[in-house]
Amino acid sequence: MSGRKSSEVAAVLKKAEKTRAATEANYRNAASARLDSIQKHAENLEAYEKEISAMSVALTEETRKELREEAEALEKEWNQLRSSAGTSRHFQEITAKLRNRREEYDNTLRSLDRQADDVREAVKKRQYGWYCDEEYAQAQRIQENMKKLSEQKNAFLHELEKEENNANAEEIRLRNLIEQMRRDAEKAAQLNQRAADMIHLRQEAGKAKDCIRNLIREIPAERAVKFLPEQYQRLCSQAEAFYRMTDAEVVQGLSGKMSEISKFSMELDTMYQAWKAAKEKTEQFLLKIKTLVKEGKYYHPNQYLANPETAQAIELFAFLSAYHDDEYEKQFAGLVQKAQQLLDAEKFEESCQALTEAETLLMEANAYAGTLQNQLIGSFQLAVDTRDIMHHAGFKVKTSFINGKDARDGFCVKCTMGDETIDFDKVMMKEDGSVVMDMYHTEGANSCGTSWKLLQEKFNDAGIPMTDVKKNGNSIFRKQAAVQGGDRKQQH
Length: 492
Description:
This protein is an alpha+beta fold. The chain has helices spanning 6-54, 61-66, 68-83, 88-124, 133-201, 205-218, 221-227, 229-243, 247-292, 301-306, 316-323, 327-344, 348-392, 448-461, 478-481, and strands at residues 297-299, 313-315, 396-401, 411-417, 420-429, 435-442, 469-471, 474-475, 490-491. The strands form 3 sheets. A 4-stranded antiparallel beta sheet has the order 3-4-5-6. A 3-stranded mixed beta sheet has the order 8-7-9, with no helix packed on it.
């Protein structure tokens, strides 16, 4: 039996609690926002599908006879558009499954909290707080499960992000589909009218020519020049030749000419709608990326330790700039600028690729910032605990940043009592949660052995296990070292 003390168990549980406290709020807010967003998209999709089911296109028998190819093409397109709806149920089922997943994670977290409470109660029953090996092992398992749960939640947020993107894209698709069906319904009415006009205009060549002129004028010239320049120029030239035909030729060629113009208009509209949908998708992706960068909230470690409730949250890049560097921000800004330039150049697919890179970079930056925040908070807490312990032990204490400006490289804690000094040259927590405490002891007139035993108890009571201190290569705590274990040593 190794003889773990209650303070060591408390230290492990304390580390698990801090890991959870700094990230749980962000997770809950992000998960709720994503789930609500997917649910809203599913409701919108259901409303769109009801609207689609109520829509219809009606072509007269005259239209089917006079404009057979156009009528068949329109009905085929209509049926294809209508049959492509019906995805709302899928996203409703997805939402329900994702909500169940979130509840499972919440239940797991509550279970781990109860296990931690049980461990604390068990420790209290140990006589003198000794021989807590079983409780220490349980606390380590709780900490490992907390870390595993945090990884599962991060993966869950990524899955929510993916499903939200899918639902948003589907809503855009159905919205565009409804617009296209409305246009097809209008085209049907126009075809019906044109068919009726053709029957009447066969005897009136002049009116037939005016009809062709009007159809040409109805084509958006700027759009035609942009998407089908050669075909548009050829169509206009052929229309001019049509105007010069005899009345008999005009009447005979009216149906064919109207069909040519109609086919051109449909092809132009199809190209324009595809361009418009790609542009809208890219613009919304860019807007989403610009919004996502503001969602991650972090804290100055000193403010958070002073009072988590009143600590002022700062955005991701402001936090990284303050405690790391601005490399992530520069890369992100470069990708967003590249995406904007590609969007302006109407290279939508390449723009979306740049935005996907920016989104991945943002996730990486948030993950790193979360780890850095935990490290800084841990380092601040270690420095505060060390300062308080040494102050209560009668030392004059001076605490400073190693790098002179912030806690990223740790703290120096200089302690003096008369002619005796104990310098903690480095006090910090690493990214993996391990603790570094380097110290140098200049001994005064009194013996070191007794004072270090007292300090050991103080540090252990604060949840900072001090398992051994060496002087001139020899252990001060030989007796304790035989029954105590640990993963950290301080030397002076």
